[in-house]
Write a structure and sequence with these properties.
heterodimer, A: 642 residues, alpha+beta, 4 domains, six-stranded antiparallel beta sheet, 20 helices, 11 strands, B: 146 residues, OB fold (Dihydrolipoamide Acetyltransferase, E2P), five-stranded mixed barrel, 7 strands, 31% helix
Amino acid sequence: MTGEVGLLALCLALALAIVQSLAGLAGARGDGGNGAAIAQGAAMGLLVFVSLAFGALIYAFVTSDFSILDVAQNSHTAKPLLYKFTGAWGNHEGSMVLWVFVLSLYSAFVAFAQRGGTRLTCAALGVQGLLAAAFLLFILLTSNPFVRLDPPPFEGAGLNPLLQDPGLAFHPPLLYFGYVGLSAAFAYAAAGLITGEADAPWARAARPFMLTAWIALTLGITGGSWWAYYTLGWGGFWFWDPVENASLMPWLVATALLHSALATERTGAFRTWSLLLAILGFSLSLVGTFLVRSGVLTSVHAFANDPERGFFILLMLIAAIGGALALFAWRAPKLETGTAFHPISREMLLLLNNLLLTAAAATVFVGTLYPLALDAWIGKKISVGAPYFAITFAPIFAVLLLLVPFGPRLGWRRGDLHSALRILLPAMGAAAAAAVVVLAVARPASAAGAGAFALAAWLIASSIIDAVRRNRRRTFGWSAAASALAHAGLGISLMGIAAVSCWKSEASEVLAPGQSLTVAGYELRLRDVGEARGPNYFAKRADIDVVRNGRVIETLSPEKRSYPAEGQAISKAAIRTTGLSDLYVALGDERGHGSWIVRAYLNPLAPFIWLGGIVMALGGAASLFGRLRVRVAKPLAYVAAE
Amino acid sequence: MNPKKRRRLYFAIALVFAGAAGAALVVRALQDNVLYFYSPSDIAVKHVPQDVSFRIGGLVAKGSVTRGPGADVRFVVTDGKTQVPVQYSGALPDLFREGQGVVATGALHAGVFRASEVLAKHDERYMPPEVVDALKRAGRWKEGGT
């Protein structure tokens, strides 16, 4: 029954999505009326039926209903309950249902909040209805999660053990809230173009959706990086893997969009540019989905190696991007342009921020797609790795970070560079001090590391100065807190990234019980390697004593797990963190006579990498909270007219 | 020149400079920092320079893996036609098995591929696309089984 209920709900959801798009687009033409009411009702109905389908799928996974093909292929009765639950979206079909579920949530928010007036809301609902219809059609035609299996098998094939991890259970929903949140920004951009209302109120209406998407993307990327760190067993936190890049590109563009929309909201500047970024952000989300789902990539994420699905997503990609850009080319020249600003002003810095962020996104785009293009055109296989990104992405981002502290210190329209420099002088001192200390203390000496720490100190100190000054003048509100937190978070992450990249220690040796290896002053002594078993796996577990100054301070137990149901093996690293550094130990393969390869890393400041991500997300949350709760500062144009 | 035009001009100049700088960085980086992929047959046929990093992919030949001394491992990568000996020092990935697909990064030195990194596939059902391609080109690929 469950499967049929789910399938029926999906079909009804498709019908409602079509109703929503037609009524919304019709409502956008007139002054609202019936169209608005129908679109709003359809959006609520869409949410109800998609929730029903999603609930049915989760129910089938939790109860291990193997008469449904998707469950039989991706679940197993011995799996812990949490992973039965999250396994519902740990596969292609389920993840697409999750995608549509998040989309319908955003649609309901748009319909409920009615931000920016009836016409804008109607048009946005119309565009979101189109997107929902396209994705529902995609599910029903190529990725039906409710296909029955007759006769049902006694046992399922299980879930990739790499995905059986609490960190990864909630990584996809967060990323989807980000990707799909950008679809709401996209819908508002298209709505602004359709209605011609792409001015300051437009930016104010669309901004909460951009912020929600950005916060979710930030947390999703942070969580994904943390997961890669502790499960892949190589001690790395970012691999420039195409799938990681696929989430980084929308984040970069979303960051640019947040800043550009800030200017649009306050002074009406960069209207067309904000619209273009909103279109670009969601387009990159779709490109990412295409890369991940079409099977052109080698990755944990690539569970659907089906050309038909890739083709369908490619069609959607072309329709969405092509349609939106055509609309942009047609309508954007008719929009009013914003007011002028001086070269030394906050607008100019926001402009530079946007140029640098889009350039950074472009280098990632080229590095990710160039190998695919080369393979498709001349059949040559290459891979682009970290060295490419170190020369292209890193310098662009360094210039961006250098400019960040000036933004909040310069006024709108026309800023005062002298006073900004004077105020930021202590931050420059902090940066210089950080560079000197790092050069003097850290070995091996690294100019790049010292530079990165100087930049980090510059970012953090200037955020503190900004907060303190505004607090003294009683102008420290939610938006000031947001920029201070987000910019300081960048600095915190940068410290972690630089420290791990420049000063990581590693050792890898074959150890028999009783033997030890040394990494960065810690002696790691292998006590023994024994058997262990979990709910659905067997493991070899090593007990390794951490010895410092002749005293055992802790015993770490890295594991090598094998999952009989799935026929796979994974490593579980053991990490001892002090908050300032991580001692990371992984168990390698057996080398005969009871001896094993043991790999150990000391990663200085590693926790800062993810702490910075969380602080950045808190900054986003402060901005969102302030915007929804407090009356927002009026646009300058209106202030001047009063 | 009115302020609006002036602003557009600044914008255009900034855009051109940023674009040119970005393109220059990208082109330079792509020239020096990509890794090529070769199958064992490619290495036999083409002139692959010594001591230059590239990636190799194929199956780990059955019975070819010898471990030790220490962390050293030797094995042979094959695409069914040609075989290349590989030398590696360090921990092997969890799914490294004889007869299964493998991709290694490293350089040729006196006829032996010295690997700095060895990657195996993610799960039983999955084969790295490069390996599938290498096997197909050698005519040793069977659809639906390995």
